[in-house]
Specification:
- The protein is an alpha+beta fold.
- Helix content is about 45%, strand content about 10%.
- The protein contains three helices and two strands; from the N terminus they run H-H-H-E-E.
- The chain has helices spanning about 15-20, 30-35, 40-50; strands at about 55-60, 65-70.
- Strands 1-2 form a two-stranded antiparallel sheet.
- Strand 1 (about 55-60) and strand 2 (about 65-70) form a beta hairpin.
- Helix 2 crosses helix 3 (about 40-50).
- The two termini are about 20 Å apart.
């Protein structure tokens, strides 16, 4: 990511970058929430967007659902 503009999401996607880095290993949504300090709603929105962008994939279903970097 770019240094300098850390507080502003304009242009950079800091949260997305952090999530993708975290998902080097498959993780549950709850882990993403805890590590990134997100609400359930925000975590779901973020993961959905990253999946749509093709940066993350969902593995498994139900209680076994994990998310990981593509």
């Amino acid at each position: 990511g770019k240094e300098g503009g850390r507080d502003c999401l304009c242009g950079g996607d800091l949260l997305g970058e952090r999530a993708v880095a975290l998902l080097e290993a498959p993780r549950r949504r709850q882990e993403v929430e805890r590590v990134l300090g997100l609400s359930r709603k925000r975590a779901l929105e973020l993961l959905r967007r990253l999946i749509r962008e093709g940066r993350v994939e969902r593995v498994g279903r139900g209680a076994a659902t994990r998310y990981r970097r593509r």
